[in-house]
Automatic annotation (TrEMBL):
It is found in: Cell membrane. GO terms for cellular component: plasma membrane. GO terms for molecular function: transmembrane transporter activity. It comes from Streptomyces nanshensis. Residues 4-416 form the Major facilitator superfamily (MFS) profile domain. It is a multi-pass membrane protein. This is MFS transporter. The lineage of its organism: Bacteria, Bacillati, Actinomycetota, Actinomycetes, Kitasatosporales.
Amino acid sequence: MKRLLSAAFIGTALEWYDYFLYGTAAALVFNRLFFPELDPAVGTIASFITFAVGFVARPVGAAVFGHVGDRYGRRTALIITVVLMGVSTGCIGLLPGYGTLGVWAPALLAALRFLQGVSVGGEWSGAMLLTLEHTPREKHGSYSAVPQLGSPVGTLLSSGAFAVVGMLPDGAFYSWGWRIPFLFAFVLLLVALYLRLRIEESPVFRAMMADAEQNGPPPAPLIEAFRRAWGRILIGIAAAFLGIGGFFLLTTFIISYGTEQLGVDKSVMLNATLVGAAVEIVVLVVCGRIANRAGPWKVCVVGGVVSVLAAFPSFWLVDTGRTPLVVLGVALGIGAISIPYAPIGAVVSGMFPENVRYSAVAMSYNLAGVLSGFVPLVAASLLGLSGGRSWSAALLLIFIAACTAVGSYLAGPQLRRRLGHDPSKRHETSKAIA
């Protein structure tokens, strides 16, 4: 169990490190190196469009790796995803800029971002299911927070890497310094692959394979998931929206907003996201434990409401431009949206039957990811329409948080229907799964 949890956490952290690097670079670097012919504001929007490409690719990865995970094993899918992510991220660090390749430079950048998205499309769901299908159901609130810790740790690693290379002179930073964090992905790939190869397959999947040997292979899992559970997939999309979309609003977008609109130094904005990631780690651990007692879906509802209340104060603090208040504003916003992020894996996975679970969970989470990928772009566009006023971005955060609160509330009856009301029955089910 310790080996499983360590591999789920560390492997996911390395995967998110690779993925989040792109978001930071999209806010600081890519508009200058790959879209130099455009106006700076338009170049930022173009950079965020390539950022969104990774999210458009995520349902593709969900379909591919959902099928692999439901038919050939959760472990097999996770090994493939980490290799794909490490190679595509490292190649971004090798990619020449617009001055060398012309229009091929942004085209290749978008293609590599697409491959990142395909990888992430199967990563989160596989890591979450492998964790929860090994552990007792009454502990799913806290155990579901373990893979989630990979997100803030990945943020700390990626933002920390950019904070270090950001201390270089601008000429060196924009010439070669920004490439170092991407090239380091090749090293991290070896670590992640070693960990993934040592993971044992899920007992739930082994039971599914034993049943398939007697009764024949089940129908195509993705088609079966949409046929039997399309309503629950929609609920899962809404419930997961804040943890992804809100996060990128308060990291990727806010870095760009602070540096481009407010004139805050990039090191201040990067350090603010580092503090926010540290706050997120604490919130995930605490709220995961609370979810064991109160119920995961209830924690997600509360987190959505808290995020609605924190939206305007977070942006007001950032608008001051004063370093301590900027850091406080980013930390407040990230801390609020981390409340529902802690147990969301238990909420989404608990709604679906085992034989289509990987496909259904992956599609729910990654369709939410598609919407989330456009959040920085939508926020930048709204900012332009509002004359650079942050209230437009705060309203967007409120909308996203309300979606998660409503989706999590609707997930409650689905979870009760699947688990039943009898605590002893839940315990027996937990022992059977474990």
